[in-house]
């Protein structure tokens, strides 16, 4: 067997410059410390926005379901007056729940995207970059948040057109954006965690279908917690969607809320979700 | 400078097992700085697992894998900064333009904003994709996608370019095109190239040295000419006529790996992935 030959002389940077590719011999200066995470999050969010710019079909098709919920379910139940809504029309009460639902539906299928990225080799390529796994997951979680936020804007516009009395206070709207992003970050991480366990798209589709409806109906999105049976109230207490809806309702409609608790629960849930999904990402790389 | 740092890659008795299946079984391998090294072998030989260990995708114990002297186990982030990686699958994002695909990798390798556009432009120039840079990658031909992936790998100025079956499924003209770009960039930048391939003609033509893997180990190592001549000598010693045609690298491959069907030759996922890639480029 032959020995490895002596290394040939490295081509000079001059030659690369002559060929118009001088920068391709100069490695970029690495970011360090806390600056890595926001840089990776921005990179992932930018990709999501670029994709939406090229193809808005998903944005339009995903607007249909929330529009139907508000238009049919909301308006019908407003007439029936069967659900106690703290004195506001039912369609108003429902709108924040539908914003949260739309955001969750987008985020909950991020696990399928990450399995698709694994099958396409994109995930492995990203894992061979100087990106810690937690930063990659956080980037994807916030990218889901950005996508959900755009969806939330669409639902808010539909709700406004239906006459829902929403706040236009910029600070409160900023709070709404934060709540939508945090909620989506948690649900996308939940999905990516399940992806790291089940490892196949088909199985994840089944899980996705199985958990979205219980999460939705086991929250205060459609009706107040007080009308639920005891066991469902217990489910609602540990369901982050309930805290998301509570915060959205308080910010958008001015109903009594528990904003500090809501934000705390969403922050902790997102952090735990990121930790869980990051720890299982290695299974997807194998 | 240590000898380790003179070597682009050094694997020392590398072992990696998936459950009870040992994919890499005591691999000793060195790749010198600046060379094009071809890792050959049948499906299931352990090439891709070895590549995944070198790229830090799979966790390995300390001191088994070093890249330019950096330990892949202890200093994974530093190792990743030295690498450009093109996986076997067509891994460009079809819903982004060529330029956006490359810009993503510029961002995750910390290319500063003021330099990003120019560096991305140079990477696209290096693979001759400037004119198609603002088209969606989904509209590219198979050869163009491979060149785009090369641009993604080059944008961070890697010292080691790792290519896993870069020409699988491409027609001969596209294959030649991909290799011409690899060689041109290598000549201009002096980077080291580690490539796996099933195409013996490519290995013969483009690799400075090749290692033939079988059952998780290197079974033959040398320049393509050395390996061909070695087999020729063995055949003559066994009674072959001096006038017999010189063996090809494919003959060397068959000599090492055998020509029978091997039930361990690549799992279902490997074969499906290979076929998908071939379908997408074809």
UniProtKB/TrEMBL annotation, chain B:
<keyword id="KW-0067">ATP-binding</keyword>
<feature type="compositionally biased region" description="Basic and acidic residues">
    <location>
        <begin position="261"/>
        <end position="273"/>
    </location>
</feature>
<dbReference type="Pfam" id="PF00005">
    <property type="entry name" value="ABC_tran"/>
</dbReference>
<feature type="region of interest" description="Disordered">
    <location>
        <begin position="260"/>
        <end position="282"/>
    </location>
</feature>
<dbReference type="InterPro" id="IPR003439">
    <property type="entry name" value="ABC_transporter-like_ATP-bd"/>
</dbReference>
<keyword id="KW-0547">Nucleotide-binding</keyword>
<dbReference type="InterPro" id="IPR003593">
    <property type="entry name" value="AAA+_ATPase"/>
</dbReference>
<dbReference type="InterPro" id="IPR027417">
    <property type="entry name" value="P-loop_NTPase"/>
</dbReference>
<protein>
    <submittedName>
        <fullName>ATP-binding cassette domain-containing protein</fullName>
    </submittedName>
</protein>
<dbReference type="GO" id="GO:0005524">
    <property type="term" value="F:ATP binding"/>
</dbReference>
<feature type="domain" description="ABC transporter">
    <location>
        <begin position="9"/>
        <end position="240"/>
    </location>
</feature>
